[in-house]
Amino acid sequence: MNIEEKWPVLGRHERAAEWLTIWTNLGRAPRTIDAYARGLAEYLLVCEREGVDPLTANRSQVALFVRELATRPHRRGVNVVALDSGVGLSNATLQQRLVSVRLFYDFLIEEGVRDSNPVGRGRYTPGRHFGAGSRPLVARMVKLPWIPSEAEWLQLLEVFRPEPIRNRLMLALAYDSALRREELCTLRTDDFDPAHRTLRVRAETTKTRRERVVPYSASTGVLLAGYLDHRSTLSRARGPLFLSESRRNHGDPLTLWTWSKVVRRVALAAGVPRFSTHTTRHLCLTDLARMGWELHAIATFAGHQSTETTLRYIHLSGRELSAQLNRSMAHLHAQRVSMLTEIAETQV
Predict the structure, then answer these.
(1) Whether CATH 1.10.510.10 fits 150-347
(2) Which of 18, 97, 122, 348 has a beta carbon 3.0–4.6 Å from 117's, enabling a disulfide?
(3) CA 41, CA 262: separation in Å to the nearest integer?
């Protein structure tokens, strides 16, 4: 299904379709294009409903879209965990929707259709803030990443303990190498260098499109060897590391959604509903900060494009406030990895 089939409103606005086509031709990731399309399509629908021409909309009319997002009932209703209120979208999602609209108006300015950006955070000028100091339509909330308490982590490990070796290896690698979901699920057998205990995260699988090489521990290596033996019963061909064992997709590459469902199931069973596929990455980077790793070293390990992102883990770790305590935590990372893989020898 193409973008205009999914969002018919885009076909009714020539400039919107043209803008998305440019991004597609520039090779942006499909999920990025889909996110842009969704944000812009929702904005255009509000414009149509309110009788606003999006090409000439002003700031107050864009604010109608913000109000719509902020008051819309959430599809998960009372079961939503991450939101502060229970209605409307989260601050991060609001920002994501507005990025699409802001970039669209940047495009219209470049094309000479408009003189200004009604979103208020227009083109970036080096040495200056966005929008020449104008306030954004929605204040950006900067929250620290959530990580589980030690008790919650132990609960999760207890539930993961009887899981198949594939799932246990995925959890171990997700923490040990601080991998994002797509980076983990798209690993290939030839991405690993067992001699040096490193793995290559290919640029096309990363959020920032920057390739990196990261290490993994000896105990994770033992679990990897056990899984490779098991994998050979499914397929002897090189290629995607993690394979499905379901009847329907037996031997096919594991999808991102399958891993998400595994993690969600385990999180609910452990009574830790906030745990997600990204939590292990947050936990690993926070532990590295606790151990005293330098900012740039953590940024390189994580594949962050900016050290501003990495600073969140420094703050979360409390390193600036507990430098003396950190000196006693040098073995924390190794201890977690050991706990993740301690049952490998008995179950491999």
Answers:
(1) no
(2) 122
(3) 32
Tokens of 165: 């070796």
3-state secondary structure the chain: CCHHHHCHHHHHCHHHHHHHHHHHHCCCCHHHHHHHHHHHHHHHHHHHHHCCCCCCCCHHHHHHHHHHHHHCECCCHHHCCCCCCCECCCHHHHHHHHHHHHHHHHHHHHCCCCCCCCCCCCCCCCCCCHHHHCCCCCCCCCCCCCCCCHHHHHHHHHHHCCCCHHHHHHHHHHHHCCCCHHHHHCCEHHHEECCCCEEEECHHHCCCCCCEEEECCHHHHHHHHHHHHHHCCCCCCCCECCECCCCCCCCCECCHHHHHHHHHHHHHHHCCCCCCCCHHHHHHHHHHHHCCCCHHHHHHHHCCCCHHHHHHHHHHHCCCCCHHHHCCCCCHHHHHHHHHHCCHHHHC
Tokens coding 250:
């037996």
Superfamily name with CATH number, domain 3-133: Tyrosine recombinase, N-terminal domain (1.10.150.130)
pLDDT tens for each residue of the chain, 348 residues long: 577 788 899 989 999 999 999 988 888 878 888 889 999 999 999 999 999 999 999 999 998 888 888 787 655 444 433 434 444 567 777 888 888 999 999 999 999 999 999 987 544 333 444 444 455 666 665 667 889 999 999 999 999 999 999 999 999 999 999 999 999 999 999 999 999 999 999 998 888 888 999 999 999 999 999 999 999 999 989 999 999 998 888 889 999 999 999 999 999 999 999 999 999 999 999 899 888 888 888 999 999 888 877 877 766 665 544 554 444 455 667 777 777 777 555 555
